[in-house]
Amino acid sequence: MSKTFSQAVTVFRESWLPVPATPAGYAALIDAYDLRVPIPHTLYAIGDRHKIIEKDGWHILTPRHAPEPTLLGHLTFALKNEGLDLAVLKRLFLACGPKPIEEMVKSRPTGRYSRRIWFLYEWLTNDLLDLPAVETGAYVDALDTAKQYGGTPIASPRHRVRNNLPGTPLFCPLIFRRKELEVFQQANLQQKAMEAAASVPKDLLARTAAFLLLKDSKSSFEIEGERPAHDRIQRWGRAIAESGKTPLSIEEFLRLQRIVIGDDRFVQLGFREEGGFVGIHDRESHMPVPDHISAKPEDLSSLMKGMIDFAQDHAKHLDPVLAAAVLAFGFVYVHPFEDGNGRLHRYLFHHVLAQRGFNPAGVVFPVSSVILERIDDYRQVLEDYSTRLLGKVDWQPTQQGNLTVTNDTADFYRFFDATAHAQFLYACVMQTVEHDLPEEARFLQSHDRFQRELNEVVDMPARLADLLFRFLNQNNGKLSERAKSKEFAALTLEEKELVENIYTRCFDEKI
C-alpha cells in the first residue's frame, strides 16, 4: 500500500521550520511511515521560493530540487543529498516490508540508486528479496565517500554494488566528512608525534611516557568522580600501557573490567543482566531520571560481537582516530557493564591508536587528562546522541530503582552519527601531540638542569631539593616568606637569590 507524503508544514516533530516547506528525503520518510528514530542533525525540505536556506537544522532547497512524492523518490533524494542514515533506513525497511522495495527495483533494475537501496535492504534486514541477480551495469558504491567515510570496498555481484560500509550490520556508526576533520587529518599528527619522540633522549622519553601514563590513568578516574588509592591508579595505568597488544574479545573486556573495578564486593562483574541508565533518582519517589539509557541486556551479545568484529577488521581500514572514536563512543552508549564503562570507553581510545601504531612506541597520549580539561565539551559530545536517543526509548521503572526498556532499541546503538565524537577526539589528540608530549619533555629537561645547577650551589637531600622546587614552581620562581623563614631558613641570602635565578634561567620558556 502506497504512503501519502505530507505537503508544506511549519512544524516537524515539535520543531519549527525556518519557513513553510515540504519535507523531503529522510524527513518525508520519517513522517510518512511514522518512524520512531533519533532525528538526523540536518533535515531537508523543499521551499516554495528559489532560495536555499540553511537554518535551525534544516536545509531548505528550491522547487527544482523536489523529488517525486514516492518511496523511491524520497529514498533517492536522501541517498543523493543526505548520505546514509542506517538507523532510519533499517526502521523504514521494517515498516514498509519487502514488496515495495521489490517493485521499486523491478521498475528500475539497473538504476544506481535502486540497486543501492536493494543492497542496503538485504544488508540491514538479512532478508533476501525475490529478485534475480543483476547481470549488467557498472558497479556503484553503497556509501558515497564524498559525504561520509567508508571502508574497504567488497564487491556484491548480486546487486553490482561495492560494499564500502565501514562496519557490519551488527555495528556500523558513520562519520560525515567535515572541514574540521580534514584540517585535523592534514595536520599529520602521527608524524608530528613520531618526530617529537625522536627529538627527545631515550631516557628522558621513558620518564615523559611514565608521567603521561600516570596522568591519563589518574584523570580517567577523576572524570568518574573517583579518587582511588595510588596502587589502583598504577594498576590501571599498567593496563593502559599494554593497550593494543591483546586483541579485543569478550574475555579481554571482562579482564579489563576486573582490573578497573578492583573491589568487586558491591559490583556485579560481567555483562549486565538488567537494564541500565546514566542519571539520577528522584529524591522523593526514587524513580529513575535518566540522561542516557543503556542497551537492553538481551542485545548485549550481538552488540559486543559487532564492536569486537569492527575492532578486529573494519577499524584497520579507517583513519585511526576516526576508528577510535567510533568504537569508544559506541561502547559507552551500549554501557554493557554495571560499572567501569567510562574508564573502559576511554581505554578503547588508547587500544585503537596503539594497535594502529599512531602513537610512538611506549608513549600513551594522555587523552583522559585533556578530556578532564574539556569536561563540558566532553559531556556535550556524549549528549549529542544521548539526548536524541532518549525520547525513542520506552521504559518502566523497577522496584530496585532501575529501569526496563520495553521497545526494540538495538539498532540505535548499532547505527549513529559519530561525526561530533570524531571531531572531539581529534581535538584531544592534537593537544596531546602538539602540547602535552613536547611540553612534558621540555619540563623534565628543565627540571634536570635545575637539579644539576642547584647541586653546584648547595648540597641537600633529594627530598628537600624536590620540596624547594615545588615552592618555586608554585610561586612563580620565588621563595615565599614562609619557605625562607622555615623549611629553608638555613640558606644564606645569597644562596636564596642564586636558587631563584637558577629556576628563572631553567624555566625562562613557557612550558
Strand-helix topology:
Layout: E1 9-12, E2 15-24, H1 26-32, E3 43-46, E4 53-55, E5 58-61, H2 71-81, H3 86-96, H4 98-107, H5 112-125, E6 140-141, E7 154-156, E8 161-163, H6 179-186, H7 189-198, H8 202-223, H9 230-241, H10 250-261, E9 277-281, E10 288-293, H11 300-312, H12 320-334, H13 341-355, H14 367-373, H15 375-390, E11 395-397, E12 403-405, H16 410-414, H17 419-457, H18 462-474, H19 481-485, H20 493-506
Please give a structural write-up.
The protein has 20 helices and twelve strands. It is of the alpha+beta class. It folds into four domains: 1-92, no CATH class; 97-165, no CATH class; 184-429, Fido-like domain (Fic-like fold, Orthogonal Bundle); 441-506, no CATH class. It has a five-stranded mixed beta sheet. A three-stranded mixed beta sheet has the order 6-8-7. The longest helix has 39 residues, at 419-457. The protein is elongated, with a radius of gyration of 28 Å. 41% of the residues are buried. The mean pLDDT is 92.
Any guess at the CATH architecture of the largest domain? Orthogonal Bundle
- Distance N to C terminus: 68 Å
Overall 3D form: elongated
Provide the domain count. Answer: 4
Number of helices: 20
Radius of gyration: 28 Å
Question: How many strand segments?
Answer: 12
Assess the beta-strand content as a share of residues: 5-15%
Helix content: 40-55%
Cross-sheet strand order for the largest sheet: 1-2-3-5-4
Q: What's the rounded overall pLDDT mean?
A: 92
CATH structural fold name of the largest domain? Fic-like fold
- Quaternary state, please? single chain
Quickly give the structural class: alpha+beta
- Biggest pleated-sheet summary: 5 strands, mixed
